Amino acid sequence: MNARDQILARIRGAVAGAPDVEVPRDYRGATGPDAGTAEPRPIDLLAERLRDYRAIVHVVPEAEIASVVREALARRDAARLVVPDGLPPAWLRPREAEALPYETVGDDPELSADDLDRVDGVITGCAVAIAETGTIVLDAGTGQGRRALTLLPDYHLCVVRADQVVAGVPDAVARLAPERPLTWISGPSATSDIELDRVEGVHGPRTLEVVIST
Q1: Which class in CATH covers the domain with range 38-213?
Q2: Cβ contacts of residue 188 below 8 Å, gap of 6+?
Q3: What are phi and psi of 156, to 5 degrees?
Q4: Hey, where are the domains in the chain?
């Protein structure tokens, strides 16, 4: 038994026989302009906030997702792209028979850290996106893959559907399952030292590109 197992065993022993506690999740929803009753619309506000974080943002009709994705990858000369299981094929090509100008890499068996460091990027969907804070949340669900897929490659291309955009954080939390591995992304990975010199790509992708469908 390793240290982790020992700690978990002690916790289980300490709470054995304790009654179940219901955790209320009737969170307060967004109020004011961000609630969708006035301008800006949540999608427009999300795009604005993401651009403030220096993300590259496209707001397009759903039918144009594949063409925008292809143009984005062409600008980066991407040759190998990680594609998580369950990503909608139509996001990569509108016609099934159409050949892709880049290689897609799956994660089964799981790619190593070195493998992920050598790809040109990753494309994913998301669980929810928060307009008020410009935050995209991943929960390792269908079309998102495990957390490492979006933390190790230097480029992350994320597709957000219109019905996934919510006004505020309480609205997002109400949609999310707390037991899932949640990754909250507010722009490209960045940090600043005491002199406020900004360095990007330290804790995750140096470049975040977001396609928001309307």
Answers
A1: alpha beta
A2: 53, 54, 55, 200, 201, 204, 205, 206, 207, 208
A3: -125, 120
A4: 38-213
